[in-house]
Amino acid sequence: MKRLVCMLLCLAAFGMAEAQRLTSPDGGLSLDFHLSPDGVPVYSLRYKGKTVIGESRMGFRIAPDYEFDRGFEQTDVRFSETDSVWQPVWGQYRDIRDRHKEMCVALCQPSTGWLLNIRFRLFDDGLGFRYEFPVQKDLRNFTLKEEMTEFRLTGDHKAFWLPGDYDTNEYPTTTSRLSEVASLIDSVRTEPLAVRSFTPNLAVQTPLMLKSSDGLYINVHEAALVDYPAMQLNLDDKAFCLSAHLTPDKNGAKGFMQTGSVTPWRTVIVSDDARDILASNVILNLNEPCKLEDTSWIHPVKYVGVWWEYFTGQGSTWAYTANQDIKIGETDYSKEIPNGTHGANTAHVKEYIDFAAKHGFDAVLVEGWNEGWEANFAYVKERIYSFTKPYPDFDVEELHRYAAERGVKIIMHHETTSSVSDYERQMEDAFRFMADHGYDAVKTGYVGPIIPRSEHHDGQWMVNHYLRVVKTAARYKVMVNSHEAVRPTGLCRTYPNWIAQESARGTEFESFKGNRPDHTTILPFTRLMGGPMDYTPGIFEGDLSVYGSNKARLSTTLAKQLALYVTMHSPLQMAADLYTNYEKYPDAFQFIKDVATDWDDTYILEAEPGDYVTIARKAKGKNEWYVGGITDENAREAEIDLSFLPEGKRFQATIYADGKKADWRTAPKDYVISSRKVDGKTVLKQRLAPGGGVAVSIKEL
Amino acid sequence: MKRLVCMLLCLAAFGMAEAQRLTSPDGGLSLDFHLSPDGVPVYSLRYKGKTVIGESRMGFRIAPDYEFDRGFEQTDVRFSETDSVWQPVWGQYRDIRDRHKEMCVALCQPSTGWLLNIRFRLFDDGLGFRYEFPVQKDLRNFTLKEEMTEFRLTGDHKAFWLPGDYDTNEYPTTTSRLSEVASLIDSVRTEPLAVRSFTPNLAVQTPLMLKSSDGLYINVHEAALVDYPAMQLNLDDKAFCLSAHLTPDKNGAKGFMQTGSVTPWRTVIVSDDARDILASNVILNLNEPCKLEDTSWIHPVKYVGVWWEYFTGQGSTWAYTANQDIKIGETDYSKEIPNGTHGANTAHVKEYIDFAAKHGFDAVLVEGWNEGWEANFAYVKERIYSFTKPYPDFDVEELHRYAAERGVKIIMHHETTSSVSDYERQMEDAFRFMADHGYDAVKTGYVGPIIPRSEHHDGQWMVNHYLRVVKTAARYKVMVNSHEAVRPTGLCRTYPNWIAQESARGTEFESFKGNRPDHTTILPFTRLMGGPMDYTPGIFEGDLSVYGSNKARLSTTLAKQLALYVTMHSPLQMAADLYTNYEKYPDAFQFIKDVATDWDDTYILEAEPGDYVTIARKAKGKNEWYVGGITDENAREAEIDLSFLPEGKRFQATIYADGKKADWRTAPKDYVISSRKVDGKTVLKQRLAPGGGVAVSIKEL
Predict the structure, then answer these.
(1) Span B78-96, mean pLDDT?
(2) A340 Cβ partners below 8 Å, 6+ apart?
(3) What is the mean predicted confidence (pLDDT) over A430-458?
(4) What does each C-alpha distance from A106 to A53, A71, A367 come to in angstroms?
(5) Could you list the residue range(s) of the whole structural domain that residue A449 is in?
(6) Which residue of A228, A247, A258 to mutate against B (max B Cβ within 10 Å)?
(7) What is the reported pLDDT for A513?
(8) Which of A90, A327, A540, B340 is the most exposed place for a label (fewest CB within 10 A)?
(9) CATH of the domain at A399
(10) Number of separate domains in chain A
(11) B421-432 b/e (C-beta count within 10 Å ≥ 16 → b)
């Protein structure tokens, strides 16, 4: 009967199956949709008259072998528009405008009676579209074999890409033409990472940043990834066509769906000015409004921590003993022999608390506080850690008291080593333990392959897990900073306690000689499109050989480390170096102490992916501005136009710049600090060294 | 260094690498062990001079490709013996004697430095041996590729077998020669079951019952299956050699091990008298003593329940609505339209409570009480049920009050539909909910394929899950009756709140026309070797066509249904039929009301697997005895020798026998009840109809 209704609807709607066009509010973007003669949904996107996405297919394959990407008829189409302003709990802007036009196309596949809606939203700076599976009679629970969405590009664009991989986003970014990906990808994939699961075919990850030969900047990603696998992009490097490649589970199933659900939004952000990409709020706007009733407990966090010492090669260890035969729940650690190198001991943590209190930091991260680090072998072992039992030399009660007296929080650490099934078993107790001991933030970690062993980091099961952690944390008023989780898609709007993520190659790779000077000029165009990153900048001592056998040197100057606090947006910012190094450079450290972590406004002053980024931001609720400018391996002159400053007022600018000899290879610590008066007419011209940067703080006089 | 020590030990021990022999306390069994010239561990077993197990290999393959089954040298061997008596919390015997001799062989593989111990225990009625992985320097966490244990039989024995399968024990048992398995197995595997995962090669399950041409009864199973996959048995039907085939995960990994651990015991129970197999306590004796400090809350349970009506075809449903689009956590059931057929409604459950109270039953099982049954699609859906939210028409508070007033418990039901990851998330809340509402027993269910989707019912991950449930339940003083879980291995000794399991083809298959008349004459020799079964006997109305369209008829007479309460040991026994049927046959029902569920002693009077079983038992702490005798499709005369009765006393026996016309096919309800005085010299000769049985209650005069 339902099938008949559908067919009748299809027939009734036959006259409607014309091509549909949607135009962005300012008219710059236009989206065309039609059904092909075979009933295949097809869309295309133009920007200022230029094709961005050529005619591209849409739809699904459903297991075991249903073609839900053709034979459709259009039964309805509805248009609407929105223009509203909302305020995030934290972010780059106090006010975010959501101005878009919407078109929702209702489709029916008469051969099955199945229904599918496609909803398009067109903003001035980009497109979002998603699929919707309405509740219907003949389709209910089904398994996705693949999403067939294409993004058909117009040429051999320059791409900033990571290899397609189901388990990690920690590859270095490669910059090449699309036609060069195939010849480069095998070499990139030799990168030693804790876990790698290559896509079987040629594919890259999102957010994918592209630049066309005629100067279009195009960013492809997704928004609101909920109960669905993350999307990789197959690359047809002859047709320059990208197509969705959903992360499967290890049995090959892509997604387990129930009707009455929607997919994430597929996003295409586009401009002829690279700065517009960084300024875009399309991804946040496509996410649902905040679902937490009370957000008063969510706040930006600037922190230090027992962390970098584990990477420097100086011998500090997460583990408390040398006994690798420990078994959580059986081993009595009070009877174990300490190894003498355990970093997270009470006395040492107190030093960090003292430093944090003295310099106005909110919190101290402590890794290695809990039982299990001796034998945290990824994958083979399921019960790795206790999340409620501290090591004998970590006095959780005393440290809570000591920190609270000094107005400092301790940040909890939940490294799971990807034994997620066991973490989920302990999770409620773990968060209760945190609430009982005054913690309001947790850093989670997912190093290594996932247990359950059917799952990948970026598959639907894990996507649900990460959000489950965030929701559980919210019940305990805990903020979450997830590392090695699926890359973000703007969900921090909906769950603003998801305060930051890693999900890319962070500063820790500097200790493995792993980051190139252009790395942080790319990340804002790729990883950061989905949300803030806990990049952990602020390393002043860039030559790790001072500590011991580690010969790594940072790929940046010290001044660039300061600039990252502005260019790498995050409400959670670490001063990652050993505190003793900050004590050696108190003048440079002053910038880290001063810089804000939450903003009223953001001004993208200069930007070219892979080359340079210069950003200014106004501190939230204060007449203070901070500027960060960075460059790649090439020196350049940054032009910092201060016209964003209020008219008719004078300001004091403190400029933390590369010194004359500064160079990331030879003189990274050559910096110079100067002061000058500025106003809205000032344009600072600031030389950046190779691998260098500049940081500026501006306060009202 | 350790490797050197090992080698030195090996050299020092060179003279010891002679064959070792262990003899059972009564001398009837002898076990030989030696290392082959290639250093392969080899054992063999003889019974009264006859070979039971010929020379059979032992050891492991370790991933990715280590041969840990050869190249061994013997470094030590130790002998010991035990003779002690222990008392189970419940069971077939008040006192159980554990009398065995033990030999532990320490092996070293000089090429790797790895150590392995093999511990043998020889009882008068059987052998147990297990592998032990001591804590050592060069082996710590490893993945089992296979266990190489062989059981080399002496000929083409008659076997009572289930096809090797990683996910179900619900096949009917096939009786054939080993050489016939290959030609029969494909047909058996067509059995429609909720989930089937065939072994890729020819294999059968344990407990495997065998009978040799020269009259030896041999049972192969395992004891104390903890943190290890269940063992299937590969069948080489030319050499008549069985070999271990551990249940893998879906990636092919067999077990994730850490040294400082042991495998389950491999058991071979053997006798020339079939009755000795049923009387054996080898498997219980090989399990660890009770680990629960307080067992006062554990008690036998005789129960009725809202259950059989779901199978009869009369239209009662687990589901509350017809809406299959429900989503747990989103759907507001109070707004759903009831389907009018929901079984677990308050009024109907009260009828069962009234019946239970009137007839002295301990408890009422209620299935279908909780949200989610409308759309419990196995596998595609992970969040299927709430385990804390009752349907709107199931008033949990009122029923708790109503039942408690009448001295009756309600048995909780946790059907997971094998969405185990979600069950584990809810488990703590679920058991707290039970404790808060007066439940002290739960029936768990695992219908369909497992989520996490890497796992099988019988793999290591699930083995750990089942025990996790039992341990969690114990914290809440809850007894567990697990259905569709891995078959038991005597763990009810260690965790006596694991009061019963299904793990075989139970009475529910009678409603699918699925059980043959010989079924329950085999189960005591196979499934029940590991522990009690919730077989749910007591169906008086064996013709389901009386309810509607279901044409199934039971494969037993009514008298045999009574006898099963004695022959199928379980401290948890259901009177499974609709209570209205018991009201029609109050005289026969009296036996179910009377029969004990816990025992001081057990007397196996007659037994031949596949043909007949006659068992008498003394009720725990009472001078009451109950006898059950059953036969297969052939009529026979049971000889019930009452010499177990105390001397010099007289007793009243009530005999529930097949009537003269009784036959499972034509007159299943023809029964006759008689009374007579008996004493220890009485031998009852009782005719059993085809598919029939006899039940006797004996009370002191």
Answers:
(1) 98
(2) none
(3) 98
(4) 22, 13, 51
(5) 290-321+342-503
(6) A258
(7) 86
(8) B340
(9) 3.20.20.70
(10) 2
(11) bbbbbbbeebbe
Chain position carrying tokens 């498997």: B283
Is residue B293 predicted with pLDDT exceeding 60?
yes
Which residue of chain B comes nearest to A376, CA vs CA? B141
Q: Do A175 and A112 share a structural domain?
A: yes
Residue type, A186: D
Cα–Cα distance list, B268 to A264, B157, B219, B283 (Å): 57, 15, 6, 10
Q: Flag whether B352 is in a domain.
A: yes
Query: For residues A28 and A276, is the Cβ–Cβ distance under 8 A?
Result: no
pLDDT of res. B17:
53
**B592: in domain:** no
Of B141, B253, B382, the CB nearest to A381: B141
Q: Which among B214, B211, B159 has a CA at the least distance from the CA of B182?
A: B159
Q: Is the pLDDT of residue B270 over 80?
A: yes
Residue at token pair 């993350």: A230
Residue B573 corresponds to which tokens in the numbers above? 């026994």
ipTM over 0.90: yes
CB-CB neighbours of A407 under 10 Å: 12
The answer to whether residue A643 sits within a structural domain is no
Tokens, residue A408: 């400092």
Give the mean pLDDT of B200-227. 98
Q: For residue B194, what are the contacts with CB-CB under 8 A and spacing of at least 6?
A: B168, B378, B447, B448, B484
Quick: pLDDT tens for A273-318. 999 999 999 999 999 999 999 999 999 999 999 999 999 999 999 9
What is the structure's pLDDT at B11? Answer: 43
Q: Taking Cα atoms as reference points, which of A698, A688, A684, A507 lies closest to residue A596? A: A698
Residue B477's Cβ-side half-sphere holds a number of Cα atoms within 13 Å equal to 13
Whether residue B138 lies within 8 A of chain A, CB to CB, comes out as: no
Determine the pLDDT at residue B6.
44
Q: How far off is chain B from A376, nearest CA to CA, in Å?
A: 10
Please identify, among B503, B519, B548, the residue that sits at the C-terminal boundary of a domain.
B503
Of A692, A686, A690, give the one whose Cα is nearest residue A674.
A686
Burial B251-260 (b: 16+ CB within 10 A, else e): eebbbbbbbb
pLDDT in tens, A684-697: 999 999 999 999 99
Q: Is A395 helix (H, G, I), strand (E, B) or coil?
A: coil
DSSP β-ladder status, B150-152 and B158-161:
unpaired
pLDDT tens figures, B340-393: 999 999 999 999 999 999 999 999 999 999 999 999 988 889 999 999 999 999
Buried b (16+ CB within 10 A) or exposed e, A413-438: bbbbbbbbbbbbbbbeebbebbeebe
A213: domain CATH number is 2.70.98.10
Residue B601 in domain: no
CA distances from residue A663 to A632, A693, B408 in whole angstroms, order as listed? 11, 10, 82
Q: What is the pLDDT of residues A459-471, one digit of tens each?
A: 999 999 999 999 9
Is A453's CB within 8 Å of B253's CB?
Answer: yes
Distance from CA of B514 to the nearest CA of A (A): 30
User: How far are the Cα atoms of A385, A495, A573, B59, B562 from residue A365, in angstroms, in the given order?
Assistant: 18, 22, 11, 47, 67
A281 and A367 in a single domain? The answer is no
